[in-house]
Amino acid sequence: MNSLSKAPWKLNRLFISIFLIVVILLVTYQVFFIVNQYPDILNKPKEWWNHAYPPRLNRLGNDVVLKNVTSLKKIQYDFPYSSFRREFIETPEERELRESRRESIKQGFLHAWNGYVKYAWGADEILPISNLPRNSYNGWGASIVDALDTMWIMDLKEEFKNATEHISHINFNSSVIPISIFETTIRYLGGMLSAYELSGDEMLLEKAKQLGEAMIPCFNSPTGLPYNNWNLTRGLIDGTYKPYSTGILAQVGTLHLEYMKLAQLTGNSTFFYKVQNVTDVLDKAVKKIPGLYPTFISQETGRFLNYDVVSFGANADSFYEYLIKQYLFVGGAIDQYRRMYEESIDSMHEYLIKEGQVKNRPDLLFLGEIYHGFLPRMEHLSCFVPGMLAIGSKTLNRPKDLEVAIKLGETCYWAYNSTTTGIGPEDFYFLQKNVTVDEKTRWMQKNQKDTVLPDGIYKLNGNYLLRPETVESLFILYRVTGDKSYQEKGWKIWKAIEKWCKTESAYSGLYNVASNKEIVQNNNMESFFLAETLKYLYLLFSTPDVISLDDYVFNTEAHPLLRMKP
Ligand code: DMJ
Known about the structure:
The chain crosses the membrane at residues 12-35. The protein has 20 helices and 16 strands. By secondary structure, it is mostly helical. The chain is globular. The structure holds 1-deoxymannojirimycin (DMJ).
């Protein structure tokens, strides 16, 4: 062969070599990309990877397949991430500060958890001063189930393992006394479903199914609205069992995410139909003001019982919260939820949001109630509203809702920042802009002898139950706006909790956060402190990809559940 005929062969070899080099470079790039995006892939068991990103099921049981599931609009702020390593961009100093704060929350969790393990293991709660166990939720170990996903998120896998071992022995088919269907659903059922999706532990799904099935007979009222309290043992064997109860909006209307998730994961549509019927009954029931649902309803007739009691606080709160979250959960495929949510929020703006009389703070907005006329009372419980509005604003393109969310969030934080402890009260009565203060109001103001009243407030209930709502909204507002001042606010609140609530074994609520005398602890630590307050604080100092609001929806007890995607 002469040198001329060898030339094409040499050229071919050159091309093949270049081709192979390009392929090798591309593969290497992909491997680096995946490992950097999900650094934990190398350290976790296979199950973690599989179940953290399970296949998306766009159905609510085998016979309810949702056709119009969409991605919906992005909720989270466009946080800066490096394009190659998919790393959250921040300076080394910023990272150090954020991580040290996150670690401080984790240590707080461990302090409370270890106290619970030592003094109250297996009971529902620890009494954090007397170091005794307490059972308020059927004695199944509410703190263990409620805290499960927090442990997973905080990477406390040993504690998680011990907790699942306990859960594997619980018999959810029997109850000692009638149990609260609402509390059992949001704490136990929500807790296990969320931890199942995060960890992939099939036992948790089995137990969730057992509990979900055991509670199904509670929907056997004439309208299908669930009874508030239910004896599981009797309910399962006695078809005529019917407890006396008056329906409470939040209790009948906050089971949906959990039962929808159960339907999705088990393929059993009954779980979905039961709660969808509840939505339909509430939707059809006559209201005085469109979108404002009175707090009490009859399970016998499906009619509201007192049209002049409306609130976004106790007994009503999470019903509204779930409307937008149900819509998110199904990727917009059921429009009824959006319509009901928007009607409610429009009326909330019109009837319940007011300006106050706080000196130098004209920006603050207050969320009142209706109690036979307008009642200028705002509860800690209703401080979930800023977070809800922020999520709804992004999802449904309602910019005014975000403006109001920011202002209400300011008010909730101000309520903390203006007490003697730096912790917010259970509720307070506010003076409204342009409303003259009458004698009765002045009298109430003077009568609050043990309390330092913040400006613009005339009555205050200073209890603090370690509730999460304000830090929940700070976390969501941070994720939605990218504004780091929410982290500063959350940190200040955490420092106050550390200072006033910490006990030898755990954390305790307080009697009067605005006291002008001694600050007294109340010997109570509800399981939502572990499930919600500490989780939201921890996530506030995590990178924004950890439990992104674009992938998950939180149940009202802060248990993240995966959203449906197309
Ligand atoms: C929690 O159990 C839930 O967040 C519920 O919706 C309201 N009350 C507590 C926390 O305050």
